[in-house]
Every structure is written in structure tokens, then in C-alpha cells.
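Troubleshooting log. The previous structure file for this entry was overwritten by mistake, so regenerating from the original sequence record. Sequence copied from the archived sheet and checked twice against the printout by T.R.
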Amino acid sequence: MAWGWLLALGVLIALVGLGVVWWMGRKPATPHTLPPGADVGGYGRERWARERRMWAATLARLERQAERLDPVPPHLMRDIEQARKRLARAEMMLNEEDTADEGA
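Regenerated output below.
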């Protein structure tokens, strides 16, 4: 009976060893190539345009909520300020790409 357990343990050790050898011998994963225009902060022009549309809609929704509330809650004011900052960043990145395209 003990020989059966020893045989099973030996097979398990051999399989783990083969798995380690296979894992160490693999080729490293190749990095994915980025699409054109992805060099500006990792975003392309289309992505910044989507960001601008999304944050403009979010800001409009938050401002509509704030209109209905007499004392505007602090968390809503923080959300509005964050949406304004992100919208400004998206517009700035789009303007930078426009000026970079004109200079090229």
C-alpha cells in the first residue's frame, strides 16, 4: 500500500517539474502595438472626443440635479467640480492634438 502512495507522489512531482520546465521555457508575451495617435497620454483623438462627450453629458446631468436642490450637497459640488476638470482636460488634449496636427 505504501508503494502506491510513493508512486503517486513521484508522478505528481514529475508532473510539477515538467510544468515548471515548460513555464520557464516559454517565450515572453509580445507587447501589443498601439493604434496611431495613442502616443498622447495613451489616448487617441477618438478616445478624447468620447471622453469630452461623456463628461459634457455628465456635467449637464449633475448641474440639472443641483438646480433642483436648494442647499446643494457637498458631494454633488465635488462631483460637478470633478466633471468640469475632466471635461477641461479632454478639451485641452483635443486642442493639443489639433495644434500638433497643424504643425506637422
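Residues 74-103 form the longest helix (30 residues). Archived copy saved in two places this time.
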